[in-house]
Every structure is written in C-alpha cells, then in structure tokens.
Amino acid sequence: MGAGQNDPANARGIMPPAPDACWKAVCERDATFDGSFYYSVKTTGVYCRPSCPSRRARREHIHFHGTRAEAEQAGFRACKRCRPDKPSLGQQRADLVLKACRSIEAQPEVPNLATLAADAGLSRFHFLRVFKSVTGLTPKAYAEALRARQVREALSRSETVTDAIYQAGFQSNGHFYASSTKMLGMTPTDFRSGGEGKAIRYAIGQSSLGQVLIAATEQGLCCVMIGNDAATLAEELQRRFPKGSLRVAESDFESWVAQVVQLVETPALGLDLPLDIQGTAFQQRVWQALREIPVGSTASYTEIAERIGSPQSARAVAAACAANLIAVAIPCHRVVRTDGSLSGYRWGVERKAELLKRERKPS
Predict the structure, then answer these.
(1) Does any domain span residue 274?
(2) pLDDT over threshold 70, residue 356
(3) Structural domain tally of the chain?
(4) pTM (whole model) above 0.70
C-alpha cells in the first residue's frame, strides 16, 4: 500500500488542527482525532496516531503531520503499537458492524445474536458491545428501526395497507398490527394520509426570553419553540406539522402555557406535563439522556454518546439535539462542547447561556 492511500485526512484534504489542540489530543490519547493528524517522534523515528498507547514523548521531540504520507516522506516509519498505516480499531469495528447491518437488511427475519456474532468472529457479548458502540442500538433495535422505515416507505407507495404489510416483509397481518402503532407513532391508516387531520392545539405566551409557542396533541406536549415573533413561530409550527390539523387552543390550555413559561423563567422547577415525543430510536435515547442531566449541570456531546452506550456517535448526538422540538423540557441547552464552551442552539446561543445561568442560581 502506497503512502497516503486510505488515509482519511489525506483524502479529505484536511489540515491538521492547531499544534496546541494536537498536543492536547496526544496527551489525552483522544481517539476522536485519529485520522485528523499524526505525530512523529524524532528520538524514535516513528509516527503514531493521537490515541497511541505508547509512552508519551517530550513535547520538543514531537512534530505534527496532516497525513501519513507527509510523515513517511519526512523519513518516519509507522509505530508498531498503534499501527497508523492500518485501519484504526474504530474503522475495523465500523466495517464489522456495517457487514452485520447488511446481513440484517438482507433477511426477512432478524438473524439471532449468536449467528451475527459468529459471522463477525466475536463472542456474543463482545459483538453486542461493539454493535451498540457504533450504532447506539442493539441488533434487535436496529432491525426494528429498519422494519419501521420499510413500513413507512411501503405505506407511502402501496394502494392498500395489506399490500404494504407484505412489501415490508411481515408474514402476517397480526404481527404487523401488533407493532404498527409503536413503529409509526399513529395507526397505519393515519400514516397513509400523512397524519392529516391529527389535532394539534397551540398557544403563544410571553416570557422574558421572548415569545414561547406551546403545541400539544392528545398524547401530550409535542412542540415548544422560543422566538421573537409570534407569526414566525406559528409558521414554523405549520412547517413542522404540514398535514396536522392545527388550531388555536381554548382557555383550558392556559394552564399548560403558564407551566411552560414558568419553566423558561425558573428551569429548576421542572415540568409535570406529558410529552408526545416522535423521533428515531437513536434520537429517543439521546433525548432521554438529556432529561437525565441534573438541573444546573451540563454534559458534552461525547459524554452523552458514552451514556447511551455509543461512544463514537458524538456528531449524531449533536444532530439529535438539533432535531429536538421541545425546548427546555428536553434540555438540549445543557449540552456543551468538550471544553465547556457553548455550541449552537436552535433558539439562539444567548438564550442558551441565559437558561444555564438561571439553572445555576440557588433556588
């Protein structure tokens, strides 16, 4: 294999991070930087990944390289411990899990765990741990999510629900109907009509952080948005639920509005209202983890990924936070960067900072 082949950083043309960031990653053996840069040690003549477990050299003996090719052209050879010239452990695991996912996708029934593990050359326990670390799901949950997607696609293109049942791979109507509402979030007939007519009532209240739109279905609170303009928030709600039957709530909804506005003003009080949360299995896991962050505390995207058993999915966690439609009640404002600095927030970083400030005040 020639230098630079299958080198992620080289293929993407990415410059290495700043030297201080590189040195910090090396000190912490941070595997999330593997592929972003390499470092060489002039006293040993080798180059390594940031996560290399070898004894760390002194800073003045280390030089950083954007690609393997650059390190090799400078006369350094690959470390025999971290093997930077071979696929990383993370890449090996990703390839293994991808193969398992393809196997699940190709079969009408979920292969049992023992079969999947044997195909991967791992024990059942080790395979399950690796699969969850990459996808955030068990093989069974992945198969269920896959089947749910197939059902949605089949219902969208089939003339009848019965046709969709068999197109999605179900062997009987009973098996399908036993799990259809859980998979779709509504009955199959409602899904075929795009959820058209599903009643969503909403109202807009005023808080010190701006206008607050509160929307709910019969199941519970489905949307909380914060903004500067009531009309813009209402338009956004329509975009989020294009086929829902939206209507301004009656006076009996005022207590819900008051509770949500009070939550914005004093987050430590919490919220005792039912939620109607619709999302993928992975998003649901992330949102549940957010609700478990104590008031007044924060967590990084990486920490959340680790808490849900998927340590390599920090970026997917960030995407799940961005997809959250229920502000404050599902506290994505409590998620920060690894260094503690504030990242983006759907309703404005200034509001995020203020919410965190309020939570840290003594009650």
Answers:
(1) no
(2) yes
(3) 5
(4) no
